[in-house]
C-alpha cells in the first residue's frame, strides 16, 4: 500500500511508528510492498538565534530515526543544553525555547543549506540521509507559513504571538481568539506532496493536533482539495472529551470547536473524512457521511499503536472498495 | 599609564594577564590610574557553519574574563563538543575545527549581531559586557581581513589556504611560500584604535606571533604609521632561536625571517620599535637604533609575566623621557 500521513509532532510521530511496525516498514525495508509518505507540518517552524528550527519535522525524523528523547517525545536523547545556557549568560532572548546542543547541530545544517538556497524539502531529504526514518518525509510547503495565535494584549486590544511562544512560553494558557497561518494563502504544496496524495491507496490522519498540526497542513492551498479526492481515515485525538496529549483543547476552543471526538470529525468535515476512529469511550459517536469505528485509541506502546494503524488501514480499504 | 597592546591569541592574552597583575588593573579597577587598550588581531577570523569565529579576540576575552581553558590556552574551560560531533554525523565539513559548545554560543551571539548590522567592534564590546576582561578590547578593524597562506598545490602550482586551515588542519606543516592578508589594503582601523595609539603613554608588543598576529595588525593601513609616532617596546617571541610557543618559526620562514630574537626585531624595524626585550639566552643581541634589554622571558606564571611587563613599561618610560 501507498500510504500518506499528514502529521504534526509527537502524536503523529508515535502513530507513524505504530504504522511502520504494522506494515513491517523501516529504514531497511522501505519501498517494497508498502510506502509511507509523511506531509509534515511546518507552521510551528521558527527562526531563533539565526537558526531555522522545524520542530515537527524533527520530531518525526528523530522518532522514526531512533534519535528521539523517548520520555518527553521531542528533542534528542541524551541531550545537553550548554549552548542554551551560554546564550542566556549573554542575555540573549528568548530563553524559553528548549534548544539542545545536539538539536542545534541539526538547525545549523538546515540553516546553512537554506542560506545556500536549498528549499526546505531538499534540506529535509538531506537530513533524513542521516536519520533514515523509513518514510518519505516531506514538508507541507517550501514556503514560509507561520502559525500565529491572537490573544489579548492586556489593554483592550489584541496581539499576535508566534505559536511556539504561545505554546511553550505561555503553555497555551493565554486564551486564544484566533489561530492563523500567516502566509498560508500564498503557499504552495512542497514538491511531491500532491503527487503522493494522488497516488495514495489511503490517507490516514494521525491523532495530531487538529488545529495547529493537521489544520496547518490542510491550510496550504491544494492539499485539502487533493485529500478530498482520496480515501481518508482519521484517528481521533480526543478521547472521552479530553485531548490525549495536552493542550489541544486550547486550540480547539480558539476555533470554536468542542473538545469531543465527534466535533473534531465534524470540523474536518465529510468532504475530507471517509472514516473516523474513536475510542471505546466515545462509542456511539456518529458523524454524518463518515464511517465511524470504535477501538482502544491510547497509543500506550508500539503494539497498541500498530493495532490502531491496522484498524485505520482496514477501514480505508473497506471504504475504498466500491460499495456492494 | 595608558597602555596599548596589539595582540594575537594565547601569547598576547597571557602577557596581558601579567600586565594587568603588574598594574593592578582588572574588571573591578579599570580606568583609574591605568588603562589598557588591546588591538586584537582579526586576520585569523573565519566563518564556519554560518558562524563568525574570532579566535584571537575570544582568547583574549576568555583569558582575561576567567573563562579560558587554562591548560590548552584557547577555548572555554569545561568545554564540550556535542555540536561538533553532531555536525560531523551529518557529514558537515570541515571537521578539523575545534568548535566547542560553549564557544558556539559566543559565535551565535556574534553572528546574530553582525547579521543585524553591528560592526565587529560593537559586537566585541557587547560580548565583553559579559566577560569584563578589564581591558578595552578593540578589533584591529571592522573590515574583513583574512590571513591566507600560499602553499604548493601538489601539481606544480600554488594554492591559498585560510590561515586556520593551514594552522590547525595541517599544523603549519605545509611549507608556506607567502602569507597574505586578504583585504588588508582596503581595511580601516576600527573606531578608537588610532585614538588609543595617539594617546598612549606606551605601546607594548607582546610575544605574539610576529607574522600572523602582530604582523596582521600592522598590515591595516594607518596602524603601523600611528605606532611609529609613539614609544613602542616589544617582547621577543623567540628565545634562543626557537619560538616560545609552537609554529611561529613556520610563519617567519614563510616571510624569509630568521628565527632569532634579533631578526624579528629587525623585521619589525627601528621606525616601529624603540625598545626590545630579549631573553637572557639572547643577551648580546643588538638591533640598530633599538634599545635592547635582556631578562628572563618565559611566561611561566603570572609573577614572571608581570616582571616582563614591568620591564617593558620601565623601558618605554625610559625611552620616552627626553634624553639628557
UniProtKB/TrEMBL annotation, chains A, B:
A GO term for molecular function: magnesium ion binding
EC nos: 2.7.8.28
Record's keyword terms, sorted: Magnesium, Transferase
Transmembrane segments: none
Pfam families: CofD
UniProt xrefs under PANTHER family: 2-PHOSPHO-L-LACTATE TRANSFERASE
Protein name, per record: LPPG:FO 2-phospho-L-lactate transferase
Organism field: Streptomonospora salina
Amino acid at each position: 500500500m501507498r500510504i500518506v500521513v499528514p502529521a504534526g509532532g509527537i502524536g503523529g510521530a508515535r502513530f507513524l511508528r505504530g504504522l511502520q511496525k504494522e506494515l513491517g516498514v523501516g529504514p531497511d525495508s522501505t519501498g517494497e510492498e508498502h510506502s509511507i509518505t509523511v506531509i509534515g507540518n511546518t507552521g510551528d517552524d521558527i527562526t531563533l538565534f539565526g537558526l531555522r528550527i522545524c520542530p515537527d519535522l524533527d520530531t518525526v525524523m528523530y522518532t522514526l530515526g531512533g534519535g528521539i528523547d523517548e520520555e518527553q517525545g521531542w528533542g534528542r536523547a541524551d541531550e545537553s543544553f550548554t549552548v542554551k545556557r551560554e546564550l542566556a549568560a549573554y542575555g540573549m532572548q528568548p530563553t524559553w525555547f528548549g534548544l539542545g546542543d545536539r538539536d542545534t547541530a541539526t538547525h545549523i545544517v538546515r540553516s546553512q543549506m537554506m542560506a545556500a538556497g536549498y528549499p526546505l524539502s531538499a534540506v529535509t531529504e538531506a537530513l533524513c540521509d542521516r536519520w533514515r526514518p523509513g518514510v518519505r518525509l516531506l514538508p507541507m510547503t517550501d514556503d514560509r507559513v507561520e502559525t500565529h495565535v491572537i490573544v489579548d494584549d492586556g489593554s483592550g486590544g489584541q496581539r499576535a504571538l508566534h505559536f511556539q511562544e504561545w505554546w511553550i512560553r505561555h503553555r497555551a494558557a493565554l486564551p486564544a481568539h484566533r489561530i492563523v497561518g500567516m502566509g498560508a494563502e500564498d503557499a504552495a504544496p512542497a514538491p511531491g506532496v500532491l503527487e503522493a496524495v494522488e497516488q495514495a491507496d489511503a490517507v490516514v490522519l494521525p491523532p495530531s493536533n487538529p488545529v495547529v498540526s493537521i489544520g496547518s497542513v490542510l491550510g496550504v492551498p491544494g492539499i485539502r482539495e487533493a485529500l478530498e479526492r482520496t480515501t481518508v481515515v482519521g484517528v481521533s485525538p480526543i478521547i472521552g472529551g479530553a485531548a490525549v496529549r495536552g493542550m489541544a483543547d486550547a486550540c480547539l476552543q480558539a476555533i470554536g470547536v468542542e473538545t469531543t471526538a465527534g466535533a473534531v470529525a465534524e470540523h474536518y468535515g465529510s468532504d475530507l473524512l471517509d472514516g473516523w476512529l474513536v475510542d471505546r469511550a466515545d462509542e456511539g459517536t456518529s458523524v454524518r457521511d463518515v464511517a465511524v469505528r470504535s477501538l482502544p485509541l491510547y497509543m500506550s506502546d508500539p503494539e497498541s499503536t500498530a493495532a490502531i494503524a491496522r484498524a485505520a488501514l482496514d477501514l480505508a480499504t473497506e471504504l475504498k472498495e466500491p460499495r456492494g
